[in-house]
Amino acid sequence: MMQSWLDALLSLEALAVVLALAYLLLAARENPWCWLCAFISSALYVEILWDVSLLMESVLSIFYVVMAVVGWYEWKRGGSGHHGVQIVSLKWWHHFVLLGITLLLAALNGWLLGLYTSAARPFVDSFVSWGSVITTILVVRKVLENWLYWLLIDGISGYLYVDRGLYLTALLFGLYLVIVVFGYFRWRKEWHKAPLIYGLEAKV
User: Fold this and answer.
1) pTM of the full predicted structure?
2) 28 part of a folded domain
């Protein structure tokens, strides 16, 4: 019984890993089909992460499912001309505000998880989760610096997954660290090609 459960979990994890990798590679190339991969992969991770007691990560996957739909719309029909959002960049002080909000939410959430749930790593799990929420919104809006946020978040996530025995997913996040560097420089190149003042964007 235990062996069959482990086999099922590993097969689901393998499929989720492949789709998540496809999502990131497509996102780096600004291909809106990345959101379909994100939708399916995130739906699979809801169950996978819950089964290994990464509760906040599991709930986060539900958020990813919803944001995959929003991301598809924004990349295809968003923006002032409804032709899809363009790459933008935040001012430096916006990043300090976002970091402060993330740390505050993570501290409160981690305390509550440690008090009322069986979460394996409540504070680290909460930081990754809230950081991912904010960064996913940045991806949907095509904020250039989202890739730099993912460098930190993916590194910490890799540790969490090794700790819980999800080695395929940990390997995925190791690959993420390489791909996000590619994604950042590719988006930066595109941003310089077609500068656009949009929302909080300010080119320097």
Assistant:
1) 0.83
2) yes
